[in-house]
């Protein structure tokens, strides 16, 4: 059996143990039937007629509650949420729990008491949030969550297909290393997407035993990139010679930014960085002179926010939405980016085929609602 099939067996086993493969199987089935991933259409009467449902044809109050809002990925995600709610004529109140899950749960309770029209959750864990989210559902308030481990009937949970994100980045690193080398792994637990990405990393370690982890660190803070830079600088001093470290796997762009800065300032650009997530700032890092950040697997953070809002408005309108939905990720390599001009998130779709083109969570009336709320 070839190496790819062997890895797939490990991958499938790991995914089944942690989260199940129903969502991925659904995506693959749609592709086999020549339906691009993301094209899930509602079949409700409102969607069929194209008339704006009464429940959304008014200014709605939306609560967007985040576990931790740091870095440009988070800011672009929030920008996408705000943009889509405003386009639909609503208003959104953003609550940042500063990585305090009890505070995040209390914000959900606050939103329920304020009788908002809908709740958006960004990250969080079920053991802390489930009781409060169930209160929202019982109160008739629709909830859509992003990158959480919630499993509550009626609550739609979207994610970035973290298994594919991790494998795309790790596969690229493995190919570049020719299956052998010493790496640093930057990771932190306590976040559902990070836990899922770690599942793939652990499977990767078993599949490629000649790629050895020489150091591991990571933490989430108010300035994760700067903390990561300091920690990476210490690692470079511990391993001062060329060949001591071949690559860094950083499954969060805040980690990748910190590692990239440390490597550049130490003049150790023979060490390559492989990340996850993408933003305008990340693109600047990747396109900078002699940047060691050579590849990242990502989705469009602004489109994630817009998609989450669209699903929420469909729920408010009484339309059916999926229980789980994974967004199709993309691999972005530095060598694919033009060298004669800078690329931003606005025009990266011209470089990466299919970037930001999902029409998931759309209903015909959404276009009319947007037109009606243009000012």
TrEMBL record:
One Pfam match: Peripla_BP_4
Signal peptide: 1-24
Region (Disordered), start-end ranges: 30-49
Subcellular localization: Cell envelope
Coarse class of the protein's main subcellular location: other
InterPro entries registered for this protein in UniProt: Bact_Solute-Bind_Prot2, Peripla_BP_I, SBP_2_dom
The keyword Signal is assigned to this record: yes
Keyword field contains Kinase: no
Periplasmic binding protein domain: residues covered: 70-319
Keyword tags: Signal
UniProt biased composition (Polar residues): 34-46
UniProt record similarity statement: Belongs to the bacterial solute-binding protein 2 family.
Protein's recorded name: Sugar ABC transporter substrate-binding protein
Organism the protein comes from: Laceyella putida
């Amino acid at each position: 059996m070839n190496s790819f099939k062997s890895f797939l067996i490990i991958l499938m086993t790991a995914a089944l143990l942690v989260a199940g493969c129903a969502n991925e199987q659904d995506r693959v089935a749609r592709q086999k039937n020549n339906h691009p991933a993301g094209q899930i259409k509602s079949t409700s009467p409102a969607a069929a007629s194209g008339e704006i449902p009464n429940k959304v044809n008014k200014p709605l109050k939306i609560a967007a509650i985040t576990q931790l809002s740091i870095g440009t990925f988070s800011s672009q995600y929030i920008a996408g949420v705000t943009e889509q709610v405003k386009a639909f004529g609503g208003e959104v109140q953003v609550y940042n729990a500063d990585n305090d899950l009890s505070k995040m749960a209390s914000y959900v309770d606050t939103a329920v008491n304020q009788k908002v029209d809908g709740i958006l959750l960004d990250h969080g864990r079920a053991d802390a949030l489930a009781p409060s989210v169930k209160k929202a559902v019982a109160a008739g308030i629709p909830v859509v969550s992003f990158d959480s481990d919630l499993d509550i009937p009626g609550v739609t949970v979207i994610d970035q297909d973290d298994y594919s994100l991790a494998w795309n980045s790790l596969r690229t690193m493995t190919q570049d290393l020719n299956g052998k080398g010493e790496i640093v792994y930057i990771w932190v637990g306590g976040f559902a997407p990070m836990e899922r990405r770690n599942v793939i990393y652990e499977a990767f370690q078993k599949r490629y035993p000649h790629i050895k982890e020489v150091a591991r660190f990571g933490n989430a803070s108010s300035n994760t990139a700067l903390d990561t830079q300091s920690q990476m600088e210490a690692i470079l001093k511990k391993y001062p010679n060329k060949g001591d470290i071949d690559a860094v796997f950083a499954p969060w762009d805040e980690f990748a930014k910190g590692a990239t800065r440390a490597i550049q300032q130490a003049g150790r650009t023979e060490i390559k960085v492989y990340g996850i997530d993408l933003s305008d700032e990340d693109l600047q890092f990747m396109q900078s002179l002699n940047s060691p950040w050579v590849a990242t697997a990502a989705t469009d953070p602004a489109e994630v926010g817009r998609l989450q809002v669209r699903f929420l408005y469909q729920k408010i309108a009484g339309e059916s939405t999926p229980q789980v939905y994974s967004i199709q990720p993309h691999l972005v390599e530095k060598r694919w980016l033009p060298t004669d001009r800078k690329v931003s998130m606005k025009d990266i779709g011209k470089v990466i085929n299919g970037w930001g083109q999902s029409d998931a969570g759309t209903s015909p009336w959404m276009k009319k609602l947007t037109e009606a709320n243009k000012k």
